[in-house]
Amino acid sequence: MYRHLHVARQLLAGTAVLAAFPAFSQVRPPTAPAAGDAAPATPPAAVSAADANDIIVTAQRRSERLEAVPLSITAVSGSNLVRSGVTRFQDLGNIAAGVQVSRGGAFTQPSIRGVTTLTTGLGYENNVAVYIDGFYQSDTLGINGDLVNVADVQILKGPQGTLYGRNATGGAILVNTLDPSSQLSGNFNVAYARFNDKRAQAYLSGPLADDIGFSIAGYYRNSDGYIKDIDATGKKDFDAAPFKSASLRAKLKAHPFDGVKLTFGYNHLYLLDGRGLVYVQYANAPSSINALPGRATERNTASLNLVPKNTVKVDEGTLKSEVATGIGTLTSYTGYTHRSVYIIYDFDGSKVPLSSTSQSGRQKTFQEQADYNIDAIKNFEIVIGGLFYRDKLSSSFVPSSFGVNSPEQFSNASSHAVAAYADVTYHLTEKLFLTGGVRYSRERKHVDYHVAAPSPILPGSTNATFSGVAPRAVLRYEIAPRTNVYASFTEGFRSGTLPQTPQARPELLIPISPEKIKAYEVGFKTASRTIRFDTAAFYYDYRNLQVGLTVPDPTCTGLGCAIVNVIGNAPKARSYGGEASLTVTPAPDLNLRANGAYTHARYINFAGATGTGLNAVTNLNVPGQRQNWNGQQMARAPTWSGSLGADYSVPLAGGKITLSGNGTYTSSFVVGNASLYGPTGPAALQNEQRFRQKAYAMLNLSLNWVDASNHFSLGVYSENVTNTKYLVISSGSSFGSFRQYGEPVTYGVRAGYKF
């Protein structure tokens, strides 16, 4: 069961790290708050440690019981992430119905209830916002790491336009790491798994003085990867997608004055992950490519002339300031991040250097957000706040054909965003609550580019300003203690943007309109010591989806206008459905979990879509084909999805052994490219989507033993036990149709020590 969520941040002291190792799945009993900690914002009765089924979330920027928040949320503690086999950000869909974490090439792209992004590249942001310790993460590369030092993860479903407004049309994912503990504690863990996957993690936390505490966590992982490149004879040539990650996260929490708490943070990440850049042409390739010797077409093999790289380096400094006032708490989040990126990949999937691309970038981000949580006014709960955000990105892009580099393309992009918001809950009666909120957002964007000589592409530069208002209205009724029903209306706003790469002509630097979504939701939540049940139904009206298009040159008015590739808007889509989750603790050492979702997500007005069709005569792809996607399933939106999980503990050899399992099911869905076979395809298939994943199920299992002292642990685990084949990449180009599968069955051992 998802126990003690958020307790590491506000309720528990002396808690060892809940990282990606079962050694951290044991939570120590509650003690006094850590040095310098303020009292929880919720009343003590609401967060009683006597009830192990209390889950505290911050979805409304204040600490509340999960069942009292009128919003669909999947909230999971760090220990339960481990029990469910969730050790990476991309695994979150395994425990949250209606959620997928997918890849668009090198870029990580979450999807919630069918809302996702189909634009990829440096400078483009997701429409599911990710926050780590309250700080927004614009990076779509570095978030695809392992979940380390995690206290809890909260997945907020539906547009979060009022309180988490920047680019949160689909929802928000809040990742909270452990705060410093009041007692000296630490741990060290190692693991080894298939594909020469080596991991090591260390953590140390405790007080430096009465009013100062610290924590420091380090993590290292190095794996050969599961994709092997083969040479012309079919023998292994090199590891096509090795994975390496190294991170350091440090916190210093101080209480310099009464009512003042400061948390300083420094985070460093190095990530090498080329798994999304291995393109294997399996069908519809031209004869010139089919004739090449040693070309890989089988699962988990590749035939490349270089090792794909997706390297990200991140350094981030943060300061969270909390000041208690007479009427509430003022919280400030100040952060500065520097990122550097290098990407290179072979796109044609052959040993001949037909087509490759390299890209590099440097990004600097500053953010300042302040929330004033007012709780001293009778019958009112008020949050008011504001945001300032500044981002600057410099990048270069070098395409290569037949081993010869084209002129280097240079681009500079910047964003300056401000926002103001207010959210007020009024207690109409003791059991009836009305919430109203609104956010105003304004963002100014700039892009300029030039191309090294010789090149016919002229320099270009443009600016655009986007603004919007996102309201929220919610009615909640408490049927009984810890049992609520609610109905809500919310709007989401994803800022407009500009093309981030050089265009054929400067006139094609055309602003892309903001995405907007109107969401209606009704839900029911109940919880007790042994049972938690949540269910919700939703309806979305989704406008101006930002997508890639191949269209007649919109700046050309005469005859003979060319066809150009641009980022544009799909006019309208619709999504509706429902979901439910249930957790039960029938016995003290047995926890059962189940969830499921139905999602009907369709393009409604998208007759001018651009797709990769098929020529039925030549059996070759037709890139850039104009297609009608009206009524077609949106990408990454399976109609049915769900999971079942359980963990059971019994005494063994003086300690305790825990068996955990988590199974997931997903019905057929579009992997990322919603293209049809199109008007040139086989007659019976012209209106069918090409790049789909069939329905599949997966199972993760683990067995972990902890000694009687709760210091030592040993474990074994296996992911994708049934060795299920499932696609993470599926699309097509002039080189053929390409795909890449997810990891096959893996298994490993791990050991840990904590004090």
UniProtKB/TrEMBL annotation:
Sorted alphabetically, the keyword list is:
Cell outer membrane, Ion transport, Iron, Iron transport, Membrane, Receptor, Signal, TonB box, Transmembrane, Transmembrane beta strand, Transport
Q: Where is the signal peptide?
A: 1-25
The principal location of this protein is membrane
Its placement in the membrane is given as: Multi-pass membrane protein
Tell me which residues make up the TonB-dependent receptor-like beta-barrel domain. 309-717
Pfam families membership = Plug, TonB_dep_Rec_b-barrel
Which family is it part of?
Belongs to the TonB-dependent receptor family.
Report the protein name in the record: TonB-dependent receptor
* Source species of the chain: Sphingomonas natans
